[in-house]
Amino acid sequence: MPLLKIVAFLFVFLYLMPFMTALCCMFPTFRHVCFACLLYFTSNELSMSFLPIPDWPGTARGYTVSAVYLFAASLLLSMMFSFKYKVKLFPPGAFTYFLYYLAILLSGINAVHMRQWGFEVFKMFWMYITFLAVFNYLNNSRNLFFFAYVVCCILIVLFIVGFYQKYRMGIFQIRSTFPHQNSLSLYLELFGLLTLGILMNEQMSRLLFFLCLCAFGSSVLLIIFTYSRGGLVVYFGGIAIVCALSILFNGFSTRRLTLMLVGLLVMLTIVGYALPRIVARFTRAPESSKNTRIVLALASKRMANDTRLGFGANNYSEYSGGEYNYVQDYYAENDSPRYGGIVETIYLLVAAECGWWGLGTLILWFLYYYLSDIISMFVLRKMPCSGLAIGIFAGLTCNYWHSTLEWSLKQYNNFEGQMIIYALVGVIAVNRKNIKAAYQRKQEWIERQRREREKAELERKKRILATLETENVR
Question: What does the buried/exposed string (b/e) look like for 342-360 if buried means 16 or more CB atoms within 10 Å of the residue's CB?
């Protein structure tokens, strides 16, 4: 390890992290800054890797420490050292995450490359720290509107960068601040649809309404200009889900119908402008891309059938290479690389690396938060956070759907984004009763105010009638 990285590592963990933790403890407002920075760097990775293998064709290429982890750890530690915060180390769904983590740990038994396996284990640990930090911050502050403000600002920044790439740099498939356009697509599915859910269902200030409108519009333009075939189909499907569920759970309203009609017109205009290139992406896709996907999918099934615990997390490329017979039929007519590619679906990737039972734990983890959010949609119907729950449901649906076509969910940005959404699902689930009770109290107060106004109006009318009667008698 180069001396410079050792110095940087010591500086981050022995000075910068304790310093930031102390700042958060001394100035509680700084926690909001930490949280905002944590969210932002999920979209713009700033990291350093120790003992990296830059050319490794896997899901992790080093013991990576990112800015997200730095802000998450500082935020979490500051809450643990504060008497005002109640920190939960095992939030809702933690058990399902640990089952999946156990599958990754056990897959190391068969791993050929233990160092690469360690990269994935290290990444999973820090993902949980990020999840804990976001959950406890939101659960204690209970200021979800601040979360919405930050998300809107991030999407607008992503659009500005993407706009520059397209019209100043001439890039055909923009990726904004992400490593690949598919990563950007999955990120937009989570957070772009969340802003649409808020826009159509939540009561908010004019500023937040305007920001949500700009953020959602930015996400639509970005998804179109990625020209990602899967992203285009899935994202527009997600928009349909949000619109349908908003009407189903919260009924028709002038705002919803106006947004839907205006949005439809704008979307048709934009799609019409970009239609020739979109059609080209679907009709001129190379046949080799489809063939490779099929070959690796079949190879993954054979790998998963050959071992119960899998061949080791982050070891897939070893077995998809030319030295193993899982893809020999394909390589007989093509070049035979030492390390092969990665199957284009996270589900078969996990099945091959962690076994079928490992895939089962992944699906259980995914379904826990999916079902929890569905319950929230029903419980909070026509109440605050209903829009958040609907946006989350659409975003998770799109991510799970898109993950059958891409393995991008394993990348740092997308994994971090999903952990943040899971933390938000957990916070809403924990506070469902409180949200419902607060809403009912507010409605009762509004009803009392209405009755008092009616009573006061009635008394005023009686006084006027009494006065008129007195004058008539005179």
Answer: bbbbbbbbbbbbbbbbbbb
Asked if 306 contacts 45 with a C-beta cutoff of 8 angstroms, the reply is no
Q: Which distant-in-sequence residues (6+ apart) come within 8 Å of 257 by Cβ?
A: none
CA nearest 239: which of 106, 395, 88?
395
SS in 3 state form for the chain?
Answer: CCHHHHHHHHHHHHHHHHHHHHHHHHCCHHHHHHHHHHHHHCCCCCEEEECCCCCCCCCCCCEEEEHHHHHHHHHHHHHHCCCCCCCCCCCCCHHHHHHHHHHHHHHCCCCCCHHHHHHHHHHHHHHHHHHHHHHHHHHHHCCHHHHHHHHHHHHHHHHHHHHHHHHCCCCCCCCCCCCCHHHHHHHHHHHHHHHHHHHHHCCCCHHHHHHHHHHHHHHHHHHHHHCCHHHHHHHHHHHHHHHHHHHHHHCCCHHHHHHHHHHHHHHHHHHHHHHHHHHHHHHCCCHHHHHHHHHHHHHHHHHHHHCCCCCCCCCHHHHCCCCCHHHHHHHCCCCCCCCCCCCCCHHHHHHHHHHHHHHHHHHHHHHHHHHHHHHHHHHCCCCCCHHHHHHHHHHHHHHHHHCCCCCHHHCHHHHHHHHHHHHHHHHHHHCHHHHHHHHHHHHHHHHHHHHHHHHHHHHHHHHHHHHHHHHHHC
Give the model confidence (pLDDT) of 28-62 as tens digits: 889 999 999 999 999 988 888 888 888 888 888 88
Q: Among residues 211, 86, 74, 83, which one has the least CA distance to residue 129?
A: 74
Instruction: Tell me how crowded residue 8 is: count the other CB atoms within 10 A of its CB.
Output: 15
How does pLDDT run across 165-219, given as a tens digit for each residue? Answer: 988 888 888 888 898 888 999 999 999 999 999 999 888 888 999 999 999 999 9
